[in-house]
Structure formats: C-alpha cells, structure tokens
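Posting here for the record, re: 2-amino-3-ketobutyric acid.
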Amino acid sequence: MFKYRQKLTMYMGKRILVTGALGQIGTELVTALRNVHGYDAVIPTDVRENDDCRVLNVLDLEGIDYLVREENVSEIYHLAALLSATGEKNPELCWDINVVGLENVVEIAKKYDCRLFSPSSIAVFGPDCPKIAPQVTPLNPATIYGKTKVVGEQMAITSGIDMRGIRYPGLVSYKAPAGGGTTDYAVEIFHAALKDGHYDCFVREDTRLPMMYMDDAIRATLELMDIPMEKLGAARGGYNIAGCSFTAKELVGSIQRHLPDFTCTFTPDIRQNYADSWPDEIEDEVARLEWGWKPEFDLDKMVDTMIKGLKG
Ligand code: AKB
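Prediction output follows.
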C-alpha cells in the first residue's frame, strides 16, 4: 500500500522516480541524479519508512500510478528488488518483488510514457556460461534471483518502451550497507577489517567474481540513460559491464596493504553455490562500443577508496 498520500508538490522540470532508494545503489544514485537534475527533480521511494523518501511498495500498482501521475514523472529508476541470498531463502517473495513489481512499473511507465532503468545482474549467467562471460550466451541461471533478472531483461525488449538495464557485477561501496547478496562479503570485509581486524568470509579464498566500485556503477547508469535509444541494440535490457575481477584472497591481500595485521578465515556457506554458478569475469565489448563504457576503478584503487571512506 502506498501509505502516505502526501501532499505532492508541483514541480515543472524533469521528474525522476527512484524505487528502492534506501538500498545500496539507491542511496548513491539519488544523490548523483540530484547533482545532475536538481534536488526537487528526484523523488526517492522505498518500502521502508524514512524521512528522506516516500513510502512506495512496488506491488501496489495503484500507488505507483498515483505517484507517477501526480508528480508528472517521466523517468523511473526501478531499484527495488531482492538479491540472491535473500531471494533463495524466499523464492515466491523474490518472484513477486522482482517480476510482479517490475511488471507493475512497466505497466505504469507505458501508461505515462516514462523512460525506465531496471538493473540486471551477473546472476543471469549460470554454470554453463564461459568463465569470461560474453554479452550473448545462453542464460540458464541457477538461482531464482537470476531467473527474475532474465525475465526483466526480456521485458526490456518486449515492453515497447524505452527501457534499459545493466548486468551489475557485485557492487562495493561504503556509503550504504549491501544487503541480501552473495557478493556482500566484498563489502562486509572492510567493516570487519577496520573494526575487528578479522573477517570470516563466507566464500572460499579462490572464489573469483566480477566486482565494481559503486562510483563506476553509478556513472555507467547515468551514461547509459544519456544515450539516444537508436544507438542501443539488442543488449539494452542488460549490458555486460566489467569493473575488476578478483578472488577473495586477492581482496584480503589488497586490504593488508593498509592493515598488515588483518586476518581472514574462509568458511563457505550456501552462498558459495551461488558464487560458483556465476562467471569469473565479464566481457563488455558491446557496452564499450555502443555507449562508450570504460571502468575507472581497479582492485587497489577500490580498496584505497573504501578504507579512506570508512575511516572518515
Ligand atoms: C548478489 O550478490 O546477489 C548481487 C548480484 C550479483 O546481483 N550483488
């Protein structure tokens, strides 16, 4: 239910709705969008109550309709989703939020002629994918989360609207916590290293996954949304973009450059299975060619930025 039918302010410029705005990506994307389009242009929403955003449940079609109509929204960044670890614990809820929620947003985007950004993930790939994942390859994900992302990519092509997405790698940032994902260890490890000097990692030390520092992910999102639709091809529902790939052990080594006494043990749990079903690296030629994608953060630069940011 859209609980608060707040008195909505009329604002004449571009109006951008963000769902899932309190999440790891949303927290930084809202700031970035406001820097570009102005504070009032961006309407952050989340299912959780918070002074900084409006309450919106993406399963509430009427609530989305009301907000988009009343606020004259022309662009939507639909970030509300369950990630892999939470999704596997509750597959029905994962399907509802990730697929039914997206269907609702697509229906409203169609009705009001909104452009739509809907993130995909490296979780669309399954165990049959080459270790360096090409843009085009059979998508047979092992997780329900991955399946919902494949459906989302297909919707981008069949919806008939201007809808785009990126297959985000594991995202690393310090401004908001990661939550419910398999790649979360690459964020948790920094907090534990600084607080306790030790981390017990839930994947094996040789687990190599595609990762990306959040600044690169936010820039990629803004750059993709800036490109005229006619320049984008069949990959527009989910572009491969590479940041930096590293093993959990290599991450520990990079952190130890700053914290030589930091220790890490490895106790794999169920999330190891999800990680093992994903590729080691991403091949991102199509994104580079079609909209000029280029990462700026390698492993050491990411680690330097995380440590500095968390130390304050
Ligand atoms: C997760 O770990 O579930 C996410 C993802 C790879 O999409 N970070």
